[in-house]
Amino acid sequence: KVSAEDSEMAFCTLANREDLNPEEGSIHHCLYQFTRNEKLTETNKLLCDVCTQRHCGPKNNVKSEKKYVYTNAKKQMLISLAPPVLTLHLKRFQHAGFNLQKVNRHIKFPEVIDLAPFCTAKCKNVAEGNTKVLYSLYGVVEHSGTMRSGHYTAYVKMRTTNNHLSDLVLRGQSPQALETEPVKGQWFHISDTHVQAVSASKVLSSQAYLLFYERLL
Which regions form coiled coils (predicted)? Predict the structure, then answer.
């Protein structure tokens, strides 16, 4: 969707992303790169209807005669609606010649993550004045093995009911109370029928493939 709003506001975020200075190899760095401002030039120029009409005139409607005008542009992918449950899917493969190779690098991820630097300044379900969009980790999926075979296991936090999350899912209401700490609970590692209690540090050292966060604020 092409935004027709003020061009300066279109690239503004809830929190200053330039203050992040994310560590390479972290989930913050992944999000920073995914939402970076890109310049579209040369063969990636954007077709501009306004420029085309200005160049050809409003009466020229014959496609064969119209010369389309392309212009340099900026593109940035930002979050316009903060979800009740945030699911982050890490790309764990890369091309190696004609084959795909699994990426086994550890990506650092926190128990509480703030999405504000990656949300548009006019994020639809964030209360006015809020400069934080906080999420608490409650689930991790890990894959061991290769691209051809392997095994999936999960880490899940047993916790109390998140009333803010219920309000978001059932009534679409934005959370108002400030919660900056992760939701308290016991972590468990689940592998087929085997379930074992583990520490939070064990979870944070896992080689995450999928991350599940629930919204706090």
Answer: none
